[in-house]
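ok so for the tutorial part 2 we go from a plain amino acid sequence to predicted structure tokens. step 1 is just haveing the sequence, like this:
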Amino acid sequence: MHTLPTILSDCWLFRGLDTQEISTVLGCIAAQQHTYPKHSFIFHAGDCVTRAGIVVRGELHIVREDIWGNRTIQAVCHPADLFGEVFACLPDHTADVSVLAKQDTEVLYLDMQHLLTSCSNSCAFHNRLIHNYVTVLAQKNRMLSQKIRHCTQRTIRGKVLSYLSEQAMAAGSTTFRIPLNRQQLADYLSVDRSALSAELSHLQSQGLLTFHRNQFTLFASAEV
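step 2 — the prediction. this is what the tokens look like for a chain of 224 residues:
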């Protein structure tokens, strides 16, 4: 079984630190662990979020809901993924998304005031942590830009092809697996699931792609 420092070594926030340095810095930033059962909420939209979290075990969905209860997935968090860090740095603002445990999930909470303030010894690995945090924010901004690019396509066809094209380029292959099931993909692209399934079947009948569950193969360029 992997130890906590080993799991955290895969988190961008701790990039460049060995397991011993991670163990030491966890004390500096007042880290605490908490476990959540499946289908429970870590926090709701409108809550004041004071700590960032890292998934240690399980899976979280970051979701946005409208007044009628329609839910859109903003992101999926797996072990070593960081969440809530932006809200934790804005104490005068409340969260505009909710975070839901899709499985029994364990979270490591980080006190942002401790994280962003160098410890009294000004240790190099704590300074590295601050540097990494800025990098994480830049990555999150890039991910949001990607989602906006997909979702602003005018048609379901455009949204699907935009997303699949990006996944293929990231995999470096025209055959690849995506990290979302059908409902999650529909939520991510803000489309109806049945309409998504119909469009995928249509694209397959046109010979542009084939798919089986989460694995796709793209065959030819297509006009979005």
